[in-house]
Amino acid sequence: MPANFDEIIQQNSDAYRTLIASTGEDLTREGLLNTPERAAKAFSFLTQGYHQDLVEITNNAIFPTDNNELVMVKNIEFYSMCEHHMLPFYGVAHVAYLPDGKVIGLSKMARIVDMYARRLQIQENLTRQIAQAVMDMTGAKGAAVVMDAAHMCMMMRGVMKQKSDTRSMSLLGEFKHNTDARQALLMAIPSA
């Protein structure tokens, strides 16, 4: 949490009051009395990735290994907000890497996903950030992330397509340059 957390919550509460009032709603209505503060705290939680550090969240959970084969954590749930409309997008991430003498604690891969997802994002950049973080933390020969997500900005507004999903992929190192590594990865990923 930032040092000035209470000040940020107050500023964001004021902003939510203005936003809610602009709809014509009555801010003194019982159901809305504490909504600006609740919304400000929720927004702070949903964007906490800005205040997290990759080294801290991985907490030295890097271990030596003789394994040089594919390591993958599939179906890591994530929730993020698009930077264009500030509406949620959510889905699953499949995170993989080819170790080069070191592995990372499995739960840390989920923490990496959460850290980058809890920022205003587009899915394409989120995918790349996670892959690069895994490469950076493990020194892997290759890292790959595939993300499947539903975007509320496409479902609630605009084209209003309820069943559309987006798949994005980032391939680094051996996954990008080695056909066999890429094929092994793609066979391990669940179909959308």
Annotation field: number of helices: 8
- Alpha-carbon distance between the termini? 36 Å
Class computed from helices, strands and strand pairing:
alpha+beta
Please state roughly what percent of the residues sit in beta strands, choosing from under 5%, 5-15%, 15-25%, 25-35%, 35-45% or over 45%: 25-35%
Give the mean pLDDT. 95
How do the helices and strands follow one another from N- to C-terminus? HHHEEEEHEHEHEHH
Assign an overall shape.
elongated
How would a textbook summarize the main sheet?
Answer: 5 strands, mixed
Strand order of the largest sheet: 5-2-3-6-7
Secondary structure tally: strands: 7
Radius of gyration, in angstroms, nearest whole number: 20 Å
Uncertain runs with pLDDT below 50, 5 residues or more?
none
Bin the helical content: 40-55%
GO biological process, one term: tetrahydrofolate biosynthetic process
Keywords: GTP-binding, Hydrolase, Metal-binding, Nucleotide-binding, One-carbon metabolism, Zinc
EC number: 3.5.4.16
InterPro entries: GTP-CH-I_C/QueF (IPR043133), GTP-CH-I_N (IPR043134), GTP_CycHdrlase_I (IPR001474), GTP_CycHdrlase_I_CS (IPR018234), GTP_CycHdrlase_I_dom (IPR020602)
